[in-house]
Amino acid sequence: MSDVPKSHPRYLSLTLRDAIVNGVEQGITSIHGLIAHGRGEAYDYLIGEKTQPFAKEAIRAAAAMLCSAKHPVISVNGNVAALAPNDLIELGQVLKAPLEVNIFHTESGREQKIREHLIKHGASKVLMPTTEVKLSYIDSNRKYVHPDGIYKADVVFVPLEDGDRCEALRKMDKDVVTVDLNPMSRTAKQASVTIVDNVVRALPLLCKEIKTFSDNPAAQETLAAYSNEAVLQEALQHISRCANG
């Protein structure tokens, strides 16, 4: 990590940049992930680098959806593995859901490096993509999944998702919960629940919210009242207000 002092006004943002760069150096994050992170950082500025009310509403719905799932699965790519490995592991523990590595760029054995990184941080089991089964409606490497993981899942948590696979998962009648700072992305629009927030802020709140659902009727009531389209519109309106001063 760099020697940025905690008093620096951009301390947190620069620390996250360092985490992504460190991920690239470890072979966990693709170099393309640097571009994706920078794009997300720009949107984080526009939402004030805070978890806004529209994100909290989506986090509540996401918790309800994940708690109601029969077979939830947490999909992990290189960026989120570098940014929030401990929070991913905690989410898996509170949901009793497996983590599964799924990435677009597989150069230099990145899949295995991500798995080892998660285990180093305390994950007991990490599923890996196989050629035994594959997702429909997608041609990239992300179609390869584990038969007892994403392929079997009814709800997939896919932070920092790519739009093609999100669309494929929805066509396969799976619900998708995502964290995406860009409310205009294909993923944000196609997901069942989109949390427009920074993943490092959203994950701890999601874990906390999941623990509040003690019964399924409460979760179903929350989901019935939720509109992902309305939440995305709130996010866009907030960004517009900030952009216009």
Quick structural gist:
The protein is 51% helix and 10% strand. It has eleven helices and eight strands. It starts with 10 loop residues before the first helix and ends with a helix.
Radius of gyration, taken over Cα atoms and rounded to an integer in Å: 17 Å
Gross geometry: globular
**Share of residues in helices:** 40-55%
Say how many strands there are.
8
Order of helices and strands: HHHEHHEHEEEEHEHEHHH
Task: Give the biggest beta sheet.
Answer: 6 strands, parallel
Number of helices: 11
Ranges where pLDDT stays below 50 over 5 or more residues in a row are none
Strand order within the widest sheet?
Answer: 3-2-1-6-7-8
Strand percentage lies at 5-15%
Average the pLDDT over all residues and give the rounded result.
92
Measured between the Cα atoms of the first and last residue, the distance is 34 Å
